Sequence to fold (112 residues):
Amino acid sequence: MRLLITWLINAAALFALPYLMQSIRVENFSTALIAALVLGLVNVLIRPILVLLTLPVTVLTLGLFIFVINGLLFLAVANFVSGFHVAGFWPAVGGAILYSLISWALSSLILK
Fold:
């Protein structure tokens, strides 16, 4: 049950992004549900491998390269899911940051 609520919270956070950033577009809530699911799978399966492979660069940039990885994965999911559009790399980085902040805030309010 907690996993389902977390998925809905992440979809709501993704659905709220176009109201904060004009360069991100989500057509409807079902698209947000699919994109949140794909984004969760990408973060669980692909992100740890990328973080491990880019560890020297991440250490050299004092961890700031993680933002690049998050932005690239966010952009990749936007290219993969139809109905979810991101204008470019920097909007993807900003969107990934806002997405994580919104989902963290909603999770901390709802899941206590």
